[in-house]
Structures are given as structure tokens and as C-alpha cells.
Amino acid sequence: MNSSTNPSLDLSLLEKARHTNGKTIARCPACAAKGCDRKGEHLVIQPNGKFGCAKYSGDHEHRREIFRLVGIKSDTGDNFTTEQREEWKWQRRREEAAQRRRDELATEARNKAAAIREKYAWSPADAFYSSPQKIEMELDQDPRHFLRTLYRPHELIWTGETWQSGEEHGQGRFRTVADWQKTELSELGPMVSPATWQAGALSRAAGNVQSSPFTVLDFDELDGKTPETKAERDALVHHALAVTRWLVEVCEAKLAAIVHSGNKSLHVWIKTPDPAALDGLRDMAQAWGIDAGLIAAPEHPARLPGQYHLKSGNRSRTLWLAEPMHL
């Protein structure tokens, strides 16, 4: 932690910031610059303004990088002006109020979960046979069909391994949907990011995103626990489908696709909602077993259908697919 007792970081520049037990927890800017800390757990700011990265505790260079990225700079060195101190206090009060609201929403989501699972029960078979597109005859494992359903032919998208990004490894991984249709299946996937990309992009970085047509809800926990047994994995799938049905029928989410990863998680693709609804999803995500780090982060990848999962040996498959979104 730093030794200053003054407010030192600009809270408005932080990602995933929330107030917990008097402290502010957020995504570490220095870690984020390396593509890490997606869940936003590393940065800790004490009530007196002291801060540090939980992952790199005691690393002075890392802490200096945090301050360089989001620190409040003063012309008078460490002596903060009255205006800066009042601004910091105002940001703290605003964040505390926002966190209270997030906590209320999360509690509401947890309290509703059991009732939602009962009232909006939706089995994998029911989801599959209610799909607007009939995805039988191996279409449920066809990544090309999946892509041409969700995207227009001219749109630039990324597919590949998670490490295939950047000047060295990103060459050839950003192509139009039409080009991916002509690509050998062995070159396609296994992952795809829901974003479309700017022309010339080589890095799967947020700054290169052209548009965010879809948000992927990655259901990977049930009641705060990662499923280990087959029964637990099956329960997670039924939970995820029930919550999805509730989101569609009650919250009017626009469902685009549902993909089973081939292991434990279910990836639900929805049309990206307005910012307020997106914030609400993120606030309630953890209570529903959704990876909050993927919400409002279209640069992060999700598994395409038809891909073998290394942990299970099973292939990912589409359970539900809308009619082509661009028609």
C-alpha cells in the first residue's frame, strides 16, 4: 500500500469499482493493461486513500504504474487542493450509494433465484426444440452457420485461440464473416468474441472494437459454487436456462443464441441492451452465477459451437438459435 493519507486515485477512471466494508475494490489498471484482473478484484483502496494491488503486494513499480494510469496529479506534488479533496469525497459518496444499490439488486437476485428456477423451468430439450431455427443434422455444431446467423457477411470478426491476438499472433485472425465461411474448419475458432472490429485490427483490445451487437452471459457457477459432479453440472444448465427464460419473458431481453460449452458452462448470447439494463445485469450477475467480467466486455471470447473442450472431451453445441439477426 502507498504511504499517503490523501486521496490519490481518480475513482471515476476505475473499472468495476464497488464499496465493500469501508474499502473500494476495483479492477487494477496496471493489471488491466496486461489483460488481467477481468473480475476486478486486485485493486484495494483504503478509506484514507491508501491503495495497492492485492496480486502484486509490495511491488513499487506496479503501484507507480497504477498511479500513472489513474492517479490524481497535483501541481503542488503531494499537497492536494481543497477542490481535489472535495471531489474525491464526492466520488466516494457516489460510489458508496451505487454500491448499496448494487448490493440490493444482488440480494434481490439471490432471493428470486429459487422461485425463478421453479416458475420458469426450461429443460435443454425444450430449449432445443423451441429454437426458431431448426438446428438438427449437425447444424448445432456448425460454427460457420452460427456466425452467418448472427453477423452480416461484411462484418469483421475475430476467431481463434485466446492467445491469437496482437501484432505477432493476431495475423489472419480478423476476417469478414464471408471470409470465415470459406475458411477450413480446422482454422476456424475455437473461440469467437461477440464484438465486430475496426478495419486493420490485429489486437483483441477494447480500443479496436467497432460495435458490440451481443453480450454473452457466461453461467459458470450455481449458488456460488463451481459444479464438479455431473448432477451439479446438469443443475447449473437448468438454472441458467430458467434465468434466461425469465430474462426474455419478464425483462424483455432479446435472445440470439444459447451455446453449451461442452463442459460445465452455458453461454447465453443476447442483443446488447441499453446501458442501464447492462449495468443491472452486471450488478446481479454474481448472484446468478454469471461471470460479471464478461459483461460490457465484448472483446473477451466465448466458445463457438462444434469445438472440443479440452477438459471434458465433449464438443460445444448450440441449444437455441434465433433466425438470422440481420434479416
Care to count the β-strands? Answer: 14
- Give the integer mean of the pLDDT values: 87
Text of the CATH class of the largest domain: Alpha Beta
Beta fraction: 15-25%
Sheet with the most strands: spatial strand order: 1-2-3-4
Distance between the termini: 54 Å
Determine the structural class based on helices, strands and strand pairing. alpha+beta
Quick one: biggest sheet? 4 strands, antiparallel
What overall form do the CA principal axes indicate?
Answer: globular
Report the CATH topology name of the largest domain: DNA primase, PRIM domain
Give the domain tally: 2
Are there runs of 5+ residues with pLDDT below 50, and where?
Answer: 1-5
Number of helices: 8
Return the string of H and E elements.
Answer: EEHEEHHHHEEHEEEEHEEHEE
What's the architecture of the largest domain, going by CATH?
Alpha-Beta Complex
**Using only CA atoms, what is the Rg?**
21 Å
Tell me the helix content: 25-40%
Secondary structure topology:
Layout: E1 15-20, E2 23-27, H1 29-32, E3 43-45, E4 51-53, H2 60-70, H3 82-119, H4 124-129, H5 143-150, E5 156-160, E6 174-176, H6 177-181, E7 191-192, E8 196-197, E9 209-211, E10 214-219, H7 230-249, E11 255-260, E12 266-271, H8 275-285, E13 302-303, E14 317-321
Antiparallel strand pairs: 1-2, 2-3, 3-4, 5-6, 5-7, 7-13, 8-9, 10-12, 11-12, 11-14
Helix pairs in contact: 3-7, 3-8
